[in-house]
Each structure stands twice: as structure tokens, then as C-alpha cells.
Amino acid sequence: MKLLSVVVPCYNEEEMLEGFYRETVPVLEGCGWDYELIFVNDGSTDATPAVQKRLAGENSRVKIVGFSRNFGHEAAMIAGIDHARGDGVICMDADLQHPPACIPEIVERFEQGYDVVTMVRRSNEGQRLWRRAASKGFYRLLNALSPVRFQENASDFFGISRRSAEILRTQYRERVRYLRGFVQSLGYRCCAIEYRAGRRASGESHYSLPRLVHFSVTTLCGFSDVPLKLGIYAGLLAGGLGVILMVYSIVKRLFFNDTVDGYTTIVVALCFLFALTLLVIGIIGEYVSVLMQELKGRPIYLVEELVNFDRRDGEE
Ligand code: UDP
Ligand code: MG
Question: What is the pLDDT of residues 223-247, one digit of tens each?
């Protein structure tokens, strides 16, 4: 029998967790695969760990990964994936915004051989208009600036096959991360399922506006080096304009002699120095971009299949 791992990051979810468990377990029991339900306790300060332990005592398929302090949602998902042993791994939130009723559909896709099942929010009831607009704008920008194609409205609700999980475990170990982005950049056989995101059943969302802005900026910088390269573009532009201004000033001085004394020298020197400075910043930007790529150590390629490589040529 195949094993399904369900990873659930929990941070101060004492009110929600029991309800989540009661709703999810019957779905898991009916999905046709054996299952493990991995609760990650991301340094909760309320009774979340106690609730988790009670559920684990009641059901040995419930497993707990407890953090020493709060490390954030993404870290919790990664820890869950690291500890999952399943043939398929599903990440979902504890607040029932990711409907457990979708699980059998994801399992069906795993059965069909899909490696990445992205869950796409159809509507975000309870999400304010500005948040929806900001999210759309963000995906537009990210897609324009990055070589990876990101699914708009992808959520932290997704399913990945064993081999995808293994790649995340071994080859995507960056400190600054965007797990959803990594999942989207794997390739392999991907599909998307639409779902209706519910309202947060109780408690408060843990993502505030400043946190979302910070998240967007680090994501853009993590998947695109266009911002870094702005220096070199600005340098080239300013340099080009400077050369035109320089020639113009020199011609004016030599042939028409109608400029104030010293003007030409100042303009020429200014243009030259500014262009030089911006170019140097741009060149440093290029080096930083190379450094970042090396530091991130992302896989250079991912092989899907090899043909005839097991033949032992020259032996027979
Ligand atoms: N979460 C977490 N660590 C955090 C913040 C949130 O593990 O520092 C968990 C939280 O318990 C929930 C999920 O991540 O299961 C999503 O959090 P939330 O519902 O607050 O985010 P939103 O749905 O508003 O994006
Ligand atoms: Mg939520």
C-alpha cells in the first residue's frame, strides 16, 4: 500500500487543530492510501503542542515535529517534508482554509503519475480587495522578471511526489527561500487543481502587511537578478546621454565659442564620472549576481529519465 504524508505547520492553532484533525482524518482514511499526518509545532506559545500530543496519543499515524522556537511557516513546511516518508507529500494549513476534501483528488493525480500538484485558489472569500490586487500584481511582476513560470494564485497547499520531495530535501537548502517557487521550478509532470479557499475558521492570519512586503521583495530578489542589474543599465543609459552631452558641449565650445568659461570642463567631467561610477556599480552587481547563484547552489538540471545508460558497452 502506498503512503501519503500530510504536512501541517501549526503556530498557535489551539482553537483550530482539533477541528482540522476531525475533518481530515476521515478523508485520509477513505483516500485509498495509508497515511501519516505530520504536525509541525512552529514554536507555539499556546496549547497547540498539548493538543498535538493528545491527538498523537489517540492515533499513532499522527507525528509531531516540534521546533525550539518560531521559525516561520516555510521552515515548518520544509521540516515536515524532511521528515515525511510518503510516496506523495501534501502540505496544507491547519486553519481549514485548505479544504481537506481536496485530498482524494490530489491522491488521484499522484496515482496518475504527476509529480507536482499545485492547488490554485479560485476565490478568496474573506480576502480584501487590495490583497487580491496586490497578489495579482506581484505574480505579474515576478513572471516578467524571472525565467521560472509561476502559477498565479498558487498557494501553500500543494502535493509533491516522492522524487520531488527528495529534491527539495537535498538540493534546495537555501536560507532565504520561497518554497512555493521551488516547487514550481522543479519541472517534471505538473498539474493544477482549482479550489475554493475558505475563510479562516477562527483566530487571526499570521501574515501582516509588512511581512507580506518583505516576503515579496525577498522572493523577487531570490528568483530574479534584474534588480541587481539595474546598475549596469542605468550606467549604460547615463553614459550614452553623457557622451552626447559631452560632444555637444565640446562642439559648442570649439566652433561657436559662446559658452561660459569652465562650463564645458565641468559638464564633461561630471558626465564622465557619473557614467563611470554607475558602470562600476553595475559590474559589481554582475559579480554579486554570480555570487548569489553560487551561494544558492540550486540544481543545474534535473533529469527525468535516462535511456540505455545501463548498457555495459565494451564488456560483451
Ligand atoms: N504558521 C506557522 N508559523 C508561522 C505562521 C504561521 O507554522 O510563523 C502556520 C499556521 O499555523 C497555519 C499556516 O502556517 O497553519 C498559515 O498561516 P496563516 O493562516 O496565519 O496564514 P494565511 O492563511 O493568512 O496565509
Ligand atoms: Mg490561513
Answer: 888 877 777 787 788 778 878 887 8
Sequence-separated (6 or more) residues with CB below 8 Å from residue 235 = 275, 277, 278, 279, 280, 281, 282
Q: Which of 73, 132, 156, 179 maximizes ligand 1 atoms within 8 Å of its Cβ, making it the mutation to test the pocket?
A: 73
pTM: 0.77
Any atom of ligand 1 within 6 Å of the Cβ of 97: yes
Atom of ligand 1 nearest to the CA of 77: 7
Q: Element (H or E) spanning 190, and its range?
A: strand 190-197
Q: Would the CA dihedral through 93, 50, 87, 188 be positive or negative?
A: positive
205 Cα nearest atom in ligand 1: 20
Ligand 1 and 198: CB distance under 6 A: no
257-289 pLDDT per residue, tens:
777 777 777 877 887 788 788 778 888 888 888
* pLDDT (tens digit per residue) in 164-202: 999 999 888 877 777 888 888 888 888 889 888 766 656
